[in-house]
Amino acid sequence: MARIVVVDDAPEIVTTVSQMLQSAGHSVEAVPADQQTETRIGEEHPDLVLLD
Predict the structure, then answer these.
(1) Is 33 helix (H, G, I), strand (E, B) or coil?
(2) Apex CA 30: angle with CA 17 and CA 25, to 5°?
(3) 48-51 β-sheet, strand order
(4) Which residues sit opposite 6 in a β-bridge?
(5) For residue range 3-45, what is the model confidence (pLDDT) as tens digits?
(6) Pairing relation of β-strands 27-32 and 3-8?
(7) Which value, in Å, is the radius of gyration of the alpha carbons in the chain?
(8) CA angle, 14 as apex, 13 and 17 as ends, to 5°?
(9) Is residue 10 classed exposed, middle or buried when 0-12, 13-18 and 19+ CB atoms within 10 A define those classes?
């Protein structure tokens, strides 16, 4: 199981991608694309970051 952070400025995209990855058994953190994005990613220590 991978720890994945999903970043996008469109909430519907973040939700859809997050649900798909969770259903595949991954641990997913949804992060909005804003000024705090880098900080949140640094706190999570993910295996993968998906961003747009």
Answers:
(1) coil
(2) 55
(3) 27-32, 3-8, 48-51
(4) 30, 50
(5) 999 999 999 999 999 999 999 999 999 988 888 888 888 888 9
(6) parallel
(7) 10
(8) 80
(9) exposed
Cα separation, 12 vs 1, in Å, equals 24
pTM of the model: 0.85
Position 47, amino acid: D
Asked if 23 and 12 count as a contact pair (C-beta separation under 8 A), the reply is no
pLDDT of residue 5: 94
Number of residues written out for the chain: 52
User: What six digits make up the tokens of 5?
Assistant: 């952070």
Continuous segment of H or E residues that includes residue 20: helix 11-23
